Amino acid sequence: MNNRSNLRIYRRFAPLYDRFMYSWTAGSRRKTIELLDLKPGDRLFIPGVGTGLDLPFVPSETLTTAVDPSPMMLRQALSKYDSPVGFLIMDVQILAFPSGLFDAVLINLILSVVPDGAIAMEEIWRVLKPGGRVVIFDKFLPESSSLSSVRLLLGKLIRQIGTDPNRRLSTIIQEVPEALVLADQPVLLNGQYRIILLSKPMV
Ligand SMILES: C[S@@+](CC[C@H](N)C(=O)[O-])C[C@H]1O[C@@H](n2cnc3c(N)ncnc32)[C@H](O)[C@@H]1O
Q1: What CATH number is associated with residue 160?
Q2: Is pLDDT above 80 for 128?
Q3: Is 10's C-beta closer than 6 angstroms to any atom of ligand 1?
Q4: In CA terms, which of 51, 71, 109, 191 is 20 to 30 Å from 29?
């Protein structure tokens, strides 16, 4: 997947996204926000916010910055928030923010979509404050499984709709070796989808 194909796919998918993605993901979205334990005034960063399905769960005193390269997806997000949200068109792999700006980052269904998940993670880590938290909700290839030919083929098909089920979390977070994994819970489809909470050490 590259940026151009993602833009094309999500432009088409934008009007249908909520119909397909809301009901079965809502419980996991609520859980990710609870894990972040946001305090009033915390700066929350949501890269790849898409149509904003996470926004209704964000506490109203949070200061949220949400980015996505797809104007069509962002347009859908404009009606879904109670807390203050700044929306920007931006690629998570090249963030135009200073280091250490955000208290918390929410990465739902993004690391399996962006062209390079490890670069995205490195950028997210850069803009996170020491002591900050990152929560991830996504599907990953289980660390213990090898990539079977059936799964490889399935992955190629699924990539046509803008997401890759065959990435390993360990490969993506290898660029941030100091990350502390505070939680790693299976949530959907027999653990194909997981919620992971990371924290950035103070020093
Ligand atoms: C599967 S959707 C997830 C949207 C939202 N996070 C959610 O949980 O519903 C993937 C989103 O990633 C966005 N995306 C694709 N490439 C990106 C990039 N390089 N940087 C940031 N977002 C990207 C797409 O435009 C799309 O909105």
Answers
A1: 3.40.50.150
A2: yes
A3: yes
A4: 71
